[in-house]
């Protein structure tokens, strides 16, 4: 009898132990993976901007004003012109162009870009397929660093890859940005340009009678003051006044400083 009772108690104990999950040995948890999660790459999409600007290349001759359309286009890292409306009114510098540009690096503080454009050496820096003259391919590399909320420094390097006379230039820039409110800002930019002898010789050849330097060295300086206003998330307005001067020139007009201006509106798709 005692043996039967002992067997029943032992069987009940074994059954209760088997039904208790905490009494079972637990497998050691697998170690967490230390490999950081990689953010998904940004989707490639088309963005664009449309606008118009009133360009006054020389304020001494107001009758030469021109109304021109403007177009910006982006796909992935490739762009032409201005296409970003969110930060456009608070990030800008002198010496911008509308060449085909590849945005190589872009962070909150750094921006770098590589661009290429065809220029007319005998007419002006802008390519015009309907004008005669020597044409060449200019490569440009831009590096900009925003080291505070208000100060931006940059460097622009150009090279004539076909060796037809545009030469080599290096142009440091500095920009002071003064936000006025959440949707507007004033920007003041200044720059100077160093060029080799080939670059200044082509520049002097476009101004008959001038005595511009024709050896390597600093050849000009410039400054711009710009007001930018964003009316909505997509519409913006800007006005700009600029001044530039060749260093130690002797020009036929006797007026070395050239003043220019622009007024424009832009619609951004994004």
Q: Can you offer a commentary on this structure?
A:
The structure is a single chain. The chain is mainly beta. It is built from two helices and twelve strands. A twelve-stranded antiparallel barrel has the order 1-2-3-4-5-6-7-8-9-10-11-12. Strand 4 and strand 5 form a beta hairpin. The longest helix has 18 residues. The N and C termini lie far apart (90 Å).
Compile the SSE list and pairings.
Layout: H1 2-19, E1 46-56, E2 66-75, E3 78-80, E4 100-106, E5 110-120, E6 135-146, E7 151-160, E8 168-181, E9 184-195, H2 197-205, E10 217-230, E11 235-246, E12 257-268
Antiparallel strand pairs: 1-2, 1-12, 2-3, 3-4, 4-5, 5-6, 6-7, 7-8, 8-9, 9-10, 10-11, 11-12
Count of individual beta strands: 12
Radius of gyration: 32 Å
Distance between the termini: 90 Å
Morphology call: globular
> Helices and strands, in N-to-C order?
HEEEEEEEEEHEEE
Task: Give a short summary of the structure.
This protein has two helices and twelve strands. With 270 residues, the protein is mostly beta strands.
What brief labels describe this structure?
about 270 residues; mainly beta; twelve-stranded antiparallel barrel; 12 strands; about 10% helix; about 45% strand
């Amino acid at each position: 009898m005692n043996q039967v009772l002992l067997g029943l108690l032992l069987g009940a104990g074994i059954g209760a132990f088997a039904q208790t999950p905490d009494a079972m040995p637990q497998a050691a948890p697998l170690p967490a993976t230390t490999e950081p999660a990689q953010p998904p790459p940004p989707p490639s999409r088309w963005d664009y901007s449309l606008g118009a600007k009133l360009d006054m290349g020389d304020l001494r001759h107001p009758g030469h004003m021109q109304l021109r359309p403007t177009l910006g286009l982006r796909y992935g890292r490739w762009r032409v012109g201005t296409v970003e409306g969110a930060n456009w009114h608070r990030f800008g510098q002198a010496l911008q162009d509308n060449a085909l540009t590849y945005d190589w690096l872009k962070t909150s503080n750094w921006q770098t870009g590589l661009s290429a454009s065809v220029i007319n050496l005998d007419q002006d820096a802008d390519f015009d397929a309907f004008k005669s003259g020597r044409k060449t391919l200019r490569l440009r590399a831009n590096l900009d660093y925003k080291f505070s909320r208000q100060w931006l420094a940059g460097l622009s390097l150009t090279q004539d890859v076909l060796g037809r006379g545009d030469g080599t230039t290096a142009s440091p820039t500095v920009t002071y940005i003064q936000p006025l409110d959440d949707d507007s800002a004033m920007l003041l930019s200044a720059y100077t340009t160093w060029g080799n002898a080939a670059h200044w010789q082509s520049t002097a050849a476009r101004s008959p009678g001038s005595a511009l330097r024709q050896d390597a060295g600093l050849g000009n300086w410039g400054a711009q003051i710009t007001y930018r206003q964003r009316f909505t998330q997509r519409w913006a307005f800007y006005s700009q006044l600029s001044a530039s001067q060749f260093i130690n020139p002797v020009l036929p007009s006797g007026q070395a400083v050239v003043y220019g201006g622009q007024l424009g509106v832009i619609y951004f798709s994004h």
